[in-house]
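ok so i was messing around last nite and threw this chain in just to see what happens. nothing serious, just curious
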Amino acid sequence: MAASRSSERTAREFYETKQKAVQYYQSNQVPEKLEEILNSMFYENPDDVYGRLSEYFETLSKPSTISKLVSQQVYDSKGQPTLQTEVHCVVKGVDKHITTTTLCNATTLSDSAPIERKEADETERLQFVQAAIEYINGPINEKVKGLNPKDQKEIDTTICEIIQKLKEEHEEKERLLKEQQAEQEPQQPQKETTKEDRTSPKARKKGSAKSATVVVEEPKEQLFAGSNALCLVSQSMVKTAALLNKIHLYEHIASLRYEQTPEKYRLPLPMASILSFGKAAACKLNMFKEVMIVPNPCKPMDEAIKQMFSIYNQVGKALFTKFGVVSKNVNDLGCYMPTYDKPEQALDLIQESMTHLGLTPGEDFNIVLNCAAHEMFDMDKGKYEITTGVFKGPDDMAEVYNDLLTRYPAIIAIIDPLKKQPDAEPWVKVIEKISEKCYILGDHLYPRTERFVNEGLGEYKSSAVVLKLQQMTTITDTINAVKFLCDEGLETVISTVQAESGESLLADLAIGIGAKFIKLGAPSRGERVALYNRLLQIGTVLKEKDALTQDEVHEFPNILPPPPPEPDPEEEGAAQAETENTDDKKKK
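result:
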């Protein structure tokens, strides 16, 4: 009897479990979905039945979400501390490690900066890395947990708000600390300022009739320690989203840029740095920081990159023949640094190397000059020291560049021909003189990418703008800047920074946003060659898909100076009335 009751209870429990199972599967539409895919598969007749089932049900699974971020200190190509972050996500109910991203280090210091400033920069860099690790593993990790890594804009906005809040809290603590210190310290009597104190040291020099014109250098922008977490986390998310979407990174970035994946892509023209000069180099030539080569737009990418490597190696052989093994020393960008005194020597070497390989300068390859005018500018004299001891005023530089372009028509672009100054008239003279002969590219001329959209071009018009992923720059910032430039009719140049990490993301970014050029440094060393190889890889994929488009020729936009401001009608009327009164007085 007891056994019978037990059997009935078991049967009842089994029936109730079956009913719960039926209800559970029906509420999740499992029978309908199974029927749908099984009917579809019968006609599809796939080779891998279970693979097709897996693919189908994956589309019905919950979106992947971020489970955690793990950040640590690693090192860049210059042996400097930098950031690395892992992204872990819950994918189909399983916690997985998805991507690892390492941040490239940027610096605002020139190579000729004093050792004291370089040491201070190293100390600051370490502080930024340590603070960023703390923020990524702490508040940023907590805030992005549970978010979909494909929501790039939302995540970029979230981490920006976190950093801004941390910055405000830090500034409030600093303010309170200064107030406490001010209360504790006794007030010092203010020293009365004399006329002698107000005179500059130069004005007090014996025999000087008047003080020299001194150009004030722009102070270094003070960034919040740890703000570099923004750039790294943003890059990590875009890589993670592309991987989860099972598409190429450039395709995912293009979908963010154009809101849908385009059918055709334009490969950016790679700028390869070959030679380097400047005040930090053992030469007299300061007019160029970099001499670069860029292929003709019609040249296939695989052929172009192969020939770029050949030109770079040929230049090395030519220098070795003339100056010996010491001439093959390179800087952080991989550029050769010959001890030249004149710009013609550098340009002739590049063109002779092309000719030696059977290439025609101006047809197969062109030349790009990075003048980095802010580095050759002498702050005391207010002039540009184009070679050691030879100075040119801002108004003279237009003619200097025009003469160079006339004698070397293979030059198609100049980066930062002048330093940014309050008076934009010299810049206007330069663009009026040479903008029809070459591209004028702005790099240090403009603010960082994330500030660029708000501040704009101002009076300093150019053909294209150089954008970099650094410090607080997010993927969303970069895309917004590219859209702004497109609306203004300007091209985009994507550029590496001096201390690289081996990441090839920059190549995907340049293709995804449709950049005109990509500045990669010299075609040597693994961290830079990785970018050239990625361009080759993407070029091959797009060629097989017949998804390539390209510019046929270079078109240099004639940059017109900004129009003069329209006169105020009231002021114009007052001026006219004043003129009439003056004329009446003269008649009387």
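not much to say yet. The chain is about 45% helix and 15% strand.
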